[in-house]
Predict the structure.
Amino acid sequence: MARQPIRIAVLNFVHETVTFLPNDTTRGDFIYEGSPAKGEALLGWDSRNYMGGFVKVAREHDGVELVGIESPLWPKTGTGSGWITEDAYEHFLGRQIAELEAGGRWDGVYLALHGAMGVRGVPKPEADIARRVRAVVGHGAFIVGTFDPHGNEDEEFLAAADMAFTVKYFPHYDAHLQGERAARMLIRAIRGDYKPATTTVKVPILAPSVAQWTGASPWMDLVQRALAWEAREPDLYVNVFFSFGYADVPDVGMTIQAMSNGKPELAHKAADDMAAWVWRRRKELLSTIKVHLIPEGVKLAKQAIAKGATPVVLADHSDRSGSATWLLQEVIKQDLEGVLFATIADRKAVMAVKDKGLKAGDPFDMEIGGLADESAGQPVRVKGTVEGVRHAFGLHWVAVAFGKGNVVLLSEYLTQVMDPYGLKGFDVAQFKAFAIKSRVHFRRGFDDSGFAKTILLVEPVEPFLGTVRLDALPYKNVDVRKFYPFGDVSFP
Ligand SMILES: [Zn+2]
């Protein structure tokens, strides 16, 4: 017997908003070649991510029609911009809702989300998106969302939507897998084969992103515990939101979700077990990594180079604008050699090089970086030689050689280098150290691969906006004293 055809609307709206950055994320930041995307362009935009997994599995099912609703992709600022303006949010969401309304009857909706979106005037945007989509599609349709582990969510999302699947690892290795699950479970629910019974538990822990690396215990054990629940109970799914403390939003903090097939008590049991485990291990969860102040970190890097424990990674995890020069200043001060800085974000400098028509071999003498806000520090005058000017990923890049074997790569926006071999055009072997702007993503290519012999996480002496010292941030919507380790908190 032929099954009823199924129509699923696919929407994407993602950002990890550092609300403490001074530059708002505007409508224009979401508009560039390829974004917004709709139809096949949306469905095919990121085959390694949630979207790719979702589309792959949905299309393994007969009679499933996917409709790519016009959606903004990541803003071109990446994660280097602050509050999304209400104008931008309403513009894109408004068009999505209008297209859903005009699109006839829907059996299901897939929301490709992140969870740490911060919108001026909208306290919990992902829940708001789910509610507004529900108002159009009604209770006869199922809504599933996929999320980043850095999402800030509470019970409101699943009050409006039916299901959620969150990436478990950081680095985000399993995004594709969670997209696959979202498709399979959405189709099962639509066909009456799965009745989502969900529960959400918030745990009052606020951990800085850099601490959340799941390559080491106890974060690795936390992932393992969720996987063990999923392994031992058919049709049970467990999500852990590690949370994103650089967004000043009311639903910040760790969150556990569990979902069962029509067994609310099982979902409660799993979520309560996970939450209790997290709370028991809170001290260890907050002390997995060592962050050095930059002067000390650079000194340790110099010692490592002298001992031949190279390559060294100096990861300034805290730079949220991409323009921070603290590490550059200190490396110059302590006279290190053979360091690649990737990157310093300075759109003005990049454009100046382009406009002047500078080419490899030309002299370079400019102030670079800094001044995005106080966390970026002062610009640094670099005198050297242009090593290359490139156009890649739709953006311009400039490499400048200076000092003894040092190179600084200038980018237009904050850039997290995740893999040394992603640094196209560089002879990676010539460098003794890599000074990068990344918290955990770099572990893909620098650590999990076995590349780096020494890894040093650093941040500036002052607790600027990307600091692990979250209680130094100027929150307005969050009382950090209600979260471990910043206050005297009890749970449950
Ligand atoms: Zn993330």
